[in-house]
């Protein structure tokens, strides 16, 4: 419960009775509370279903509660205030930590001058919070079940009216049918679209959520009874669900077998999806609503109860989610889609991606599973799921980048959007980066805040699938980092780590774009390094914010300007450069764009080519790959070999007998030329025709295809030598034809 007495002190704390409970984030709006003196003050409710507390409003100003947050109000709403609790007299006072690091009240009422030694957002250490969680009911040993998030999923929606709400004016069954199933926006009920439409857009049409709404059933007990002083986070809430299911079963209005379609429609004995909607105001708004304090209302959550079984069909209900039927803390407006979509996300197997510890915000407003309220706090525009969630649910896949290039990327809110993944070159495959384009497009991303250069940009996520939850908000410079870090963390482009620090729920400065931060490397702030310090090729030249963005992965092409290859200038790499050359076999100068052929008969090891490829900065490390292709022949059929060497590393070019292995020089050459022509190398035949057979080569020639490569990793420049191997007989004519040498340099 959020209000628990220990001695004479009351601690503002809500602890879930089982660790499997997953709920909604606290409201971003302040709530009005009344002191015993009659004075009204505004406070924020912070945290989540497991840990929540009150904080003072950082500035003395009113924010429209339950409406739409302006960017200024959104920034204010995220600013940490001072932790607040009730004392034994019911006063809202500032909190401090006692000798055991637990909350205890000061004697200073909220509104008075804050004691100088107090710290903003004072939270007990994690071990204390975990101890309080473990002191509650033990976790149920019931396996969590996830509905398959593809195709048609049937969701049973049960409307629960608490006994003390018999006279409460509530939306009708037809209204909730529109909220869940409308195919287009409905004013007042679903002005931005329904739950069904949200999942259609997020899944790119791969999930069709069909909800069947059961009319209000009146429960035998009150809201406060089922809430049990713990905001519904105890087994008492299961009584409400069982009572409601018993009434539905007795009415005969539902065939539960229709909602068990796993295993290709055969069913697995468990209901696929079920949503309960209650007649109260959500506890996550805090304060008093409808005459009930927050601990006497229900905090929206997904949980697992001991199974309820329908006798007729044998279908069991264990996993469930429960949401408020009405919005805010007063009035009769219908509940909104944000929280419902969030809790249904748990039904499909997704975890909460906000920060359970209360210290940070997890993924913030960049993911539904971290903030169902959205950037504007309205829950009309819940954010899209993050790239990690969409991949997890098989709605999208990631293209793994390994080749330096420029890549284009469209908004992930649109069909056909691409997501890129970059694996670290060493370490576990559980750690990697995901890149997506987040823009104010589609029905639900319109609240993405505008920033310099436009709205949105590239969201670059640092993923560590080996971490179970988003409850360790580590960042460079924080205690425990890098061992402590989020499972799914957004690398914020401004380098301020405000999500980890709990300073906001996301803003326009979090994403990368031209005019703000257009690169992520091992030398930038923030860095792209793994948590173990493994470096990646740079991500840079990120374009301006738009629906068609681009970025460069890998280093810039290196221009080779100083080389002994006469005529070779501005060789661009890492794209391969094909060098076709001519030489007498001994000259230092080699010309490009001509066929290189040399005939000799002294059976010596002759260096046909020696050349140097320096970088602009010869101190740079580099990987140089040299690929040679061509033909080798002898006039008596001896199997000679060519040797390619580079700075001490050697590759032997083992010839393979050509299908036209014996015959005239012209016939074999024509056959080779024809083969090359079929590969699109028509220019090669023209070059061959300009090189008559050298003198000294007589009789039939035997031709062998040459193809090999050598890879060298060291500092440039590198000297590359191509030569023939000594032949076994003297005075044997040898003929070397090198069609091309490709050089690729990667720093």
From TrEMBL:
Source taxon at top rank: Bacteria
EC number of the protein: 3.4.24.-
Biased composition (Basic and acidic residues): 667-684
Annotated segments matching region Disordered: 655-698
Hydrolase among keywords: yes
This protein's name: Immune inhibitor A
Keywords noted in UniProt: Hydrolase
GO-annotated biological processes: proteolysis
UniProt gene name: ina
Domain (Peptidase M6-like): residue spans on this chain: 186-394
GO molecular function terms noted in the UniProt entry: peptidase activity
Coiled coil keyword on record: no
Species: Stieleria neptunia
Enzyme class: hydrolase
């Amino acid at each position: 419960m959020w209000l628990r007495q220990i001695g004479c002190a009351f601690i503002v704390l809500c602890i879930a009775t089982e660790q499997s409970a997953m709920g909604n984030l606290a409201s971003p709006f302040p709530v009005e509370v009344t002191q015993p003196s009659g004075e009204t003050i505004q406070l924020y409710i912070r945290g989540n279903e497991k840990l929540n507390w009150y904080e003072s409003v950082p500035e003395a100003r009113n924010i429209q509660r339950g409406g739409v947050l302006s960017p200024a109000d959104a920034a204010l709403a995220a600013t940490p205030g001072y932790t607040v609790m009730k004392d034994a007299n019911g006063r809202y006072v500032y909190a401090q930590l006692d000798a055991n690091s637990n909350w205890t009240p000061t004697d200073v009422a909220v509104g008075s001058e804050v004691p100088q030694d107090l710290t903003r957002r004072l939270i007990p250490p994690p071990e204390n919070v975990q101890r309080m969680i473990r002191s509650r009911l033990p976790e149920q040993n019931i396996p969590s079940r996830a509905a398959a998030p593809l195709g048609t999923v049937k969701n049973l929606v049960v409307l629960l009216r608490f006994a003390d709400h018999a006279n409460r004016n509530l939306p009708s069954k037809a209204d909730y049918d529109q909220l869940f199933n409308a195919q287009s926006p409905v004013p007042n009920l679903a002005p931005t679209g329904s739950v069904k439409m949200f999942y259609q857009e997020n899944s790119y049409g791969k999930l069709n959520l069909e909800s069947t709404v059961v009319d209000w059933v009146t429960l035998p007990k009150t809201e406060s009874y089922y809430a049990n002083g713990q905001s519904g986070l105890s087994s008492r809430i299961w009584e409400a669900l069982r009572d409601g299911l018993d009434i539905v079963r007795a009415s005969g209005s539902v065939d539960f077998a229709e909602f068990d379609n796993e295993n290709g429609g055969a069913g697995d004995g468990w209901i696929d999806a079920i949503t309960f909607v209650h007649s109260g105001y959500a506890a996550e708004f805090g304060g008093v609503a409808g005459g009930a304090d927050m601990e006497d209302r229900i905090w929206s959550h997904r949980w697992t109860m001991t199974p309820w079984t329908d006798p007729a069909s044998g279908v069991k209900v264990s996993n469930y989610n429960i949401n408020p039927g009405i919005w805010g803390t007063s009035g009769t407006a219908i509940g909104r889609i944000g929280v419902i979509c969030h809790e249904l996300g748990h039904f499909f197997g997704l975890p909460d991606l906000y920060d359970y510890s209360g210290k940070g915000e997890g993924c913030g407003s960049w993911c539904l599973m971290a903030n169902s309220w959205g950037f504007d706090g309205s829950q009309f525009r819940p954010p899209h799921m993050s790239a990690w969630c969409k991949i997890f649910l098989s709605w999208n896949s990631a293209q793994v980048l390994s080749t330096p290039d420029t890549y284009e990327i469209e908004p992930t809110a649109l069909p056909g959007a691409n997501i890129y993944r970059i694996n670290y070159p060493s370490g576990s495959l559980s750690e990697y980066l995901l890149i997506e384009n987040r823009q104010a497009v589609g029905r639900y991303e319109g609240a993405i805040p505008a920033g310099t250069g436009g709205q949105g940009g590239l969201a670059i996520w640092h993923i560590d699938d080996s971490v179970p939850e988003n409850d360790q908000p580590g960042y460079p410079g924080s205690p425990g980092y890098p061992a402590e870090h989020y499972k799914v963390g957004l690398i914020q482009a401004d380098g301020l780590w405000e999500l980890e620090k709990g300073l906001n729920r996301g803003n326009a400065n979090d994403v990368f774009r031209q005019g703000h931060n257009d690169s992520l490397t091992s030398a930038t702030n923030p860095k792209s390094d793994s948590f173990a310090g493994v470096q990646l090729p740079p991500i840079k030249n990120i374009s301006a914010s738009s629906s068609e963005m681009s970025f460069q992965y890998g280093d810039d092409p290196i221009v080779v300007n100083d080389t002994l290859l006469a005529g070779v200038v501005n060789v661009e790499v890492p794209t391969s450069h094909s060098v076709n050359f001519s030489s007498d076999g001994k000259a230092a100068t080699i010309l490009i764009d001509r066929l290189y052929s040399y005939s000799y008969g002294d059976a010596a090891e002759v260096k046909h080519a020696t050349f140097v490829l320096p970088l602009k900065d010869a101190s740079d490390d580099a990987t140089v790959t040299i690929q040679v292709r061509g033909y080798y022949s002898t006039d008596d059929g001896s199997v000679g070999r060519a040797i390619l060497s580079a700075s001490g590393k050697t590759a032997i070019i083992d010839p393979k007998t050509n299908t036209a292995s014996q015959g005239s020089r012209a016939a074999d050459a024509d056959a080779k030329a024809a083969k090359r022509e079929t590969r699109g190398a028509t220019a090669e035949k023209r070059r061959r025709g300009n090189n008559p057979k050298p003198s000294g080569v007589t009789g039939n020639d035997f031709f062998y295809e040459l193809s090999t490569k050598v890879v060298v990793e060291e500092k440039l420049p590198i000297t590359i030598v191509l030569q023939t191997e000594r032949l076994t007989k003297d005075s044997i004519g040898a003929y070397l034809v090198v069609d091309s040498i490709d050089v690729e340099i990667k720093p």
